[in-house]
Amino acid sequence: MRERFPDALAAFHDDPVSGHLPGGEDPQAAADRFTACLDDIVTRHPDGRVMVVAHTTAIRLVLCRYLSLPLRDYRRVFPSVRNCALTEIELTDGSVALLEFNTPLVGAIGAPGGGHRSRTTHAH
To answer: Are 32 and 40 a contacting pair, CB within 8 Å?
Structure first.
């Protein structure tokens, strides 16, 4: 990227939303799509707990959206999300609570303990 697309990379580092990388999905559109998906899940399961699996960037974007943070700050506010980590949010009557963020799954395959543990995210 540095050698072939230095200007695009600089724009991305300056503002990863308005300067998103060529060929990639517009982060604004991704946040809209994922937020709509989660809102639909809440409508379909108003009293339930639902596990949603998503890419790390989608998670960071939707957290910014739900927590009223500027989307352009998703990489700064949430600099990394572990693979196979738990992020738990509660969506209730239009309000959002971040209950857990980026927590490694203890006992997951490849993790210390080697067993399985299932967790879900709140969606009600």
So the answer is: no
Please state, as a whole number, how many other Cβ atoms lie within 10 Å of the Cβ of residue 98. 12
**What is each CA distance from 99 to 69, 87, 88, 103, 121, in whole angstroms?**
17, 8, 5, 11, 9
Between β-strands 121-123 and 95-104, what pairing exists: parallel, antiparallel or unpaired? unpaired
HSE at residue 46, side-chain half, CA atoms within 13 A, is: 3
Burial of 116 (0-12, 13-18, 19+ CB in 10 A): exposed
Q: What is the pTM of this model?
A: 0.79
How does pLDDT run across 72-84, given as a tens digit for each residue?
999 999 999 998 8
Helix (H) or strand (E) holding 103: strand 95-104
Q: Rounded to an integer, what distance in angstroms lies between the CA atom of residue 103 and that of residue 94?
A: 25
